[in-house]
Amino acid sequence: MSFGYQVLGFGSGGGPALVVTDYCLIAGGGGGGDNDPDGTLGSGGGAGGMRVSYPGSPLSGAAQLEILVGEQNTITVGSGGGPGVAGGNSSIGSYAASTGGGDGGPGAGGSDGGSGAGTKTGNAGGYSPPEGQDGGTWSPNAYGGGGGGAGGAGSTKTGGAGAPEGVIPAPGSGTTATGGGGGGGSQQATGGSGTNGGGSGGGRYNAGSSASTRGSGGGGRGQDGYNRGVNGGSGSTGVVIVRVPGDYTIPGPNSPNGTVATAPNGDQVITYTSTGALQID
After folding, report:
1. Do the Cβ atoms of 36 and 208 come closer than 8 Å?
2. Helix, strand, or coil here: 253?
3. Does residue 28 sit in helix, strand or coil?
4. Comparing C-alpha atoms, which of 178, 180, 182 is closest to residue 84?
5. What are φ and ψ of residue 51, in 5° steps?
6. Which residues have a Cβ under 8 Å from the Cβ of 24 and sit 6 or more positions away?
7. How far apart are CA 209 and CA 183, in angstroms?
8. Whole-model pTM above 0.85?
């Protein structure tokens, strides 16, 4: 059995077998502030909530999971929100979940989420450590608030920082920060910057940009004053990663949509970029 894992119970007087498993959940990023009837600038969308159990990550601290052997669990990967729409939640069956990023609104509008949209609150799930951070403040007729990121709060116009993607080491991971906040829209020529893949806010008369990395928020719309129909950018889809001891089987037909890699110690690292299922045998 791989170091750091254990099986609880063996079905012979000790109850059903449970596998202690590590995971990373990143929910979908929220969309940036959308088209407002008054042409008001939009705030940046918040990043999807990020929860990590594997030790060594800056966001580690969530409890490991005890998953029942032979049980099939639905893996839900949160979708990115369109303009003015919150991101979707990510989850591993009934065991763990993270909250979608808040959607940016016009001006100081928007919603709370895994990370808050501009001016709104993060960590909507109430987790410890927090799954995300707050959005930033806005400056009327200048900049919308930047959306919060998984690793840092937004500012007056700039999205909050993301966090390393490779939180459960596997081949090729650990090089990209994800879950960044979207930039706030502006009345100026250039909108606020997104961070770690969060979309940039639109300048005057321009739409916000969509997010480009997992679970990041979209940029807010620029202010035009004439309701020209420009919108915020879309948030990006999240990801679910599960790390299972190497002496267990992950049956392909019962674990669709997951890509399996082998860690140096033999553990199996399953990455889901779309909704699927997990069964440990």
Report:
1. no
2. helix
3. coil
4. 182
5. -130, 135
6. 50, 51, 52, 53, 54, 57, 167, 168, 239, 240, 241
7. 9
8. yes
Structural contact between residues 116 and 137, judged by C-beta atoms closer than 8 angstroms: no
Token representation of residue 273:
């970029």
Question: Which amino acid appears at position 107 of this protein?
Answer: G
152-161 per-position pLDDT tens digit: 999 888 999 8
- Residues 208/191, Cβ–Cβ less than 8 Å: yes
Q: What is the DSSP letter of 14?
A: S
Measure the CA–CA gap between 207 and 82, rounded to whole angstroms.
13
pLDDT > 90: percent of the chain:
35
Cα Rg of the chain (Å, integer): 19
Phi then psi for residue 158, to 5 deg, are -105, 140
State pLDDT tens for residues 189-204. Answer: 778 888 888 999 888 8
What is the distance between the alpha carbons of residues 24 and 97, in angstroms, rounded to a whole number? 10
Separation of first and last alpha carbons in the chain = 14
Residue 275 corresponds to which tokens in the numbers above?
Answer: 């909704």
DSSP-assigned letter for residue 272? E
Q: Can you spell out the DSSP letters for 130-142?
A: -S-------BTTT
Residues 6+ apart with CB under 8 A from 152: 133, 160, 161, 181, 195
Q: Are 114 and 50 in contact (CB under 8 A)?
A: yes
| Residue 5, both tokens | 């894992």
Other CB atoms within 10 Å distance of the CB of residue 189? 10
Sequence letter at residue 271: T
Q: Is 154 helix (H, G, I), strand (E, B) or coil?
A: coil
Mean pLDDT of the chain: 83
